[in-house]
Write a structure and sequence with these properties.
190 residues; Rossmann fold; 2 domains; disordered N terminus
Length: 190
Amino acid sequence: MDLGIAPRISRESQTEAVQTMPAHPDAVGYLCDLSSEVNEPWFQILCDRAAVGDASVLDTATLAGLRGLYLRTEEYIGPGPASPAIAHPIQAVPEDVIERLSGFRHFKLLGDTLEINFTKRITLIFGTNGSGKSSLCESLKTLATIESPTRPLENVRVQAPASPEFQYKFRSDGFQQSWTVSSGYGRTRC
């Protein structure tokens, strides 16, 4: 039977409940509160730098400025006004992904029967040590960057190393293409 009796909540309990609610959605609000509480210009600049993510490394000029603020020989006027956001239209970049790597010849120790089809957005490559995971990554890197590799790409374990090559196909390509050292590094478009 409900007698309509509810526990009485004191004002102190209500105040405690309100105080346990977060005052700010993130740490920046707490930094601003702390900066106001400490009310020192040298501390304010540190809080301002932390709030914009620029406080992990302080250069010599900033340290000298902090020293001047601490000794009260300099003045901190606060962060400059935020520049107005300028809307720039974003050009749509057609998505292009690699679909296949195959036909490895003289490329590190990767065998000519190896064929990898990238049919999913994420492909996990795993294997034992020495199975070719890093070599496969090197082949992807030759297509992704114009930098020459720091390590040899040819199979250095054979008596007379030949020029490495492999086949690749991007989604936008109508056909499979060959990569060789003479074709250069990085994928170029006509």
